[in-house]
Amino acid sequence: MVKYLAKRIFYIILTLFIVATVTFFLMKIMPGTPFANQQKLPPAQQAQLAAQYGLNKPVWEQYLLYLVGLLHGNFGVSYQFSNQPVSYLIGSRIWVSIQLGAEAMVVGVLLGLIIGAIGAIRAGSWVDTSATIVSILGVSIPSFVLAVLLQVYIGLDTRILPIAGWGGFEYTILPMLALAAQPLAETARFMRTEMVDVLNSDYIELAKAKGLSKYGVIYHHALRNSLIPIVTIVGPLAVNIMTGSMVVENIFSIPGIGDQFVKSIMTNDYPTIMGLTIVYCLMLCVVLLITDILYGIIDPRIRITDSK
Amino acid sequence: MKWNSFAKLGGVAAFAALVLAGCGSSNSFNGGSSKTLNWSISTELPTMDISKSTDLYSGQTINATGEGLLRYTGNSKVGPGVATSYKVSNGGKTWTFNLRKSQWSNGTPVTANDFVYSWQRTVTPKTASQYAYIFANIQNAAQISAGKMAPSKLGVKASGNNKLVVNLVKPQSYFKYMVAMSTFFPMNKAQVTKEGSKYGTNDASLLSNGPYVLKNWNSTKDSWYLSKNPKYWNAKNVKLSKINFTVIKDPSTALNSYNGNKIDYTTLNGVQVKQYKNKPGFENHAEASTFYMVMNQKKDPIFKSADARKAISLAIDKHHLVNTVLADGSLFPKGFVASQMITKNGTDFADAASVPEAVSYNMKQAKALWAKAEKATGQKSFNFNYVADDTTTSKNISQYVQNQLEQLPGVKVNNQNLPFANRLNRQTKGQFDITVAGWIADYPDPSDFLDLMTSKNSYNYGHWSNAQYDALVKKSESTDANNEAARWSDMVQAEKVLMKDQGVVPLYQQSLATLTRSNVKGVLFIPTSPEIDWTSAYMK
Known about the structure:
The structure holds two protein chains of two kinds.
Chain A: H1 2-29, H2 43-52, H3 59-71, H4 86-121, H5 126-140, H6 143-158, H7 170-199, H8 202-209, H9 214-251, H10 258-266, H11 270-298
Chain B: H1 3-22, E1 36-41, H2 56-65, E2 70-74, E3 77-80, E4 83-89, E5 94-99, E6 102-103, E7 109-110, H3 112-123, H4 141-145, E8 156-158, E9 163-167, H5 175-178, H6 189-195, E10 212-215, E11 223-228, E12 242-247, H7 251-259, E13 265-267, H8 270-276, E14 282-295, H9 306-314, H10 318-326, E15 343-344, E16 347-348, H11 349-352, H12 363-377, E17 382-389, H13 392-405, E18 411-418, H14 420-429, E19 434-440, H15 447-450, H16 467-477, H17 484-500, E20 505-516, E21 520-521, E22 524-525, E23 532-533, E24 538-539
Parallel strand pairs in B: 1-12, 17-18, 17-19
Antiparallel strand pairs in B: 2-3, 4-5, 5-9, 6-7, 8-9, 10-11, 11-12, 13-20, 14-19, 14-20, 15-16, 21-24, 22-23
Helix pairs in contact in B: 9-12, 16-17
């Protein structure tokens, strides 16, 4: 297990390095300057500013300087927010995004499992049909449409929950629901299909034949085995939430990093683009690592210690 | 692991989510009390460092927390600020400002040296200010920002604590507007030095000499407030005790928040303008900003012909463009210089210099003129790359323009809608046949626009050149610089020459459409930055 983890962490570092390198060079190909006032800056002044920030150096030299900074844990200073270190910029916003994402993931997956399981147990009934409809809607309505609908009909019309902003728990409910819809729907769909399969399998017949109660069979045998494929989609779902949050954070005026990412690209804010790319990449790698570890825990046939 | 463990795991996760939820920062959307103004703003404030600020919103906030020598008091009007009076001498090249006794928010006096320090700091190359160029007409500024001279040589001197003497390179009658811009506000040296690289990144690093002080702010925050500055010299006329700000980036969220009584003010986008233009609280403010088409004479010889340029203009119905295609409150373009920006004796510059045929629509005449120009070049077919921004507004305009121009004989138009940085890059490199450029004036003087179209100006993307125009602009800046009437007349003539020769094709003038609650009074709108001033705002 330790060996496996060490190997995986090495790969994560390698991935981060490659992603950072590719992003750095792609970013330098983008036209324009990081200077917000570039339209009005006389060419001489632009050159002066570029020299001040070291942007007139060859790209490979800038890249090496960036890497050296990175190794010292220095993400650089934002151009857009002058004098603001990128690490502070990300640090002060990332927990908001993580909190929202985690809430959406937990609520979405748990509800999805329950809805999917009920649908499978009562396959063909009206409960199953409604569960299917819910999951089809959840998959097909984009999070930003749902976000706007929730905002208008629940936030503005009923005034039960805040329209937008970030404060206590009540502020997280609407954006969380908007983000949770997709994982909920995906999980419910997978869960239902898997569970219907499992419920028809021989060992369930055997368990029933042994005289176990219906719920005993479902609880002890069917649920656990149905979970295995669900774990495979948790990774992609987490990615979905990360990308979805860029828009949803914007709609609900949430001070997270999603919106920051888009803005940094639009303004050529090089250090911020790099910092956020690395952070997103790291989050993704960690989610995938956790998924792989979960696999082993849920399915004894996949032993992490076996994979060398 | 048994299923039980899974249930526990889920429970722990759900609990964790709830605990995390409790950790969120508070203080978003303070409810609507009648004494406090609740304002919405579409982006964070990137900086409050006077030398570094480039965007409208930090400029607005600096204008609320600081004060320059003079202060904007309305359309093209400035009134006393830190300076009670000023005198222009030496043929318009020396400006002497008499400063009142006033204080920073920590009680130390605001002196002439605070201005000297601030201006020197901004032009110093190491500061890397993106607005240093605006000081170019102050003696030695250009050499200093090029790193060839010491900042202390800048043509601004303190004579005692309450007198500031500025020496200009050439007379500049609109210097009075410039000293009202936030870039020219004073800075307290002791404070800036003490805070170092933290200066301007949070409210504690700042000192105010204006109507309000900034509270609960750092540059990543999405809510903060302005509170009345008791040390402001004119504090007795500041009626609001507090203005709350909330960042709302999405226009429909902002509108929902307004309708939900969470905020007292919001800006409107195109679709919203259509719904709200007849509702109470709607206002449409002209901005000192013109969007115009430029034709590349270097790439396409046909555009050297005035007939061809006129044909392009006549083929586009600007009324239709503004009222139907855009329909977002944008205004019909009276000419190149924005309207409602500056008046003289009650006459708007744009009206004084109006050349109606340069902005009118007549497709029949356009076709005839184009055919004539085409004949002169001998070329039969034209394939034009039309370069514009990739915003929805800009794409709609592109489609309309393409549709109109393709009605001219032999013309095919290829739309290229690009991100801003890309579009600008193409323009400066001359990689376009026709393009749309936008200009927002820094100060309300026609020269801010007119300079752009002089032959050697780097913003003259299409390389239109007219000796008479160049001479008039030059005259307005030299021989007539100190003669207000003659200067005005030069500029009016110059604009007329530009329009008659169709050096550019004005498309529309940008505006700011807003919704404000009826009990909010006294908010001042200015067509140039900072656009909004809350000094005299009050709530009924």
